[in-house]
Amino acid sequence: MRFQDLLAYKKSFELAMDIFSISINFPAEEKYSLTDQIRRSSRSVSANIAEATRKRKYEKHFVSKLTDSDAENAETQVWLEYSHACNYIDTIKFENLTSKSLEVGKLLNYMMNNPDKFL
């Protein structure tokens, strides 16, 4: 199993790239705070999925890495809320990105609840 073939990986990678694209336009004073944080957390989702697949020999380790991924996804949602509240992204973009993040969360939860299908 290649982690690149997992739908959760594909969707989380796409979300991270969308966030990168919008964060380019964040104010310069946010470079080392919001911009950095939202990019790091969004990228960590797919990175943790990749790590999980390398630990799939051990179910508990696999699920643990997926829960790390899910936590990073939740953190990304918080940074999206801040981005919206600070008027760095409009409501339509906020809802679109949040919807994508929620979809990633559902995929991760499916994997965590059904690890045998991925081991």
TrEMBL record:
<dbReference type="Pfam" id="PF05635">
    <property type="entry name" value="23S_rRNA_IVP"/>
</dbReference>
<dbReference type="InterPro" id="IPR036583">
    <property type="entry name" value="23S_rRNA_IVS_sf"/>
</dbReference>
<dbReference type="InterPro" id="IPR012657">
    <property type="entry name" value="23S_rRNA-intervening_sequence"/>
</dbReference>
<protein>
    <submittedName>
        <fullName>Four helix bundle protein</fullName>
    </submittedName>
</protein>
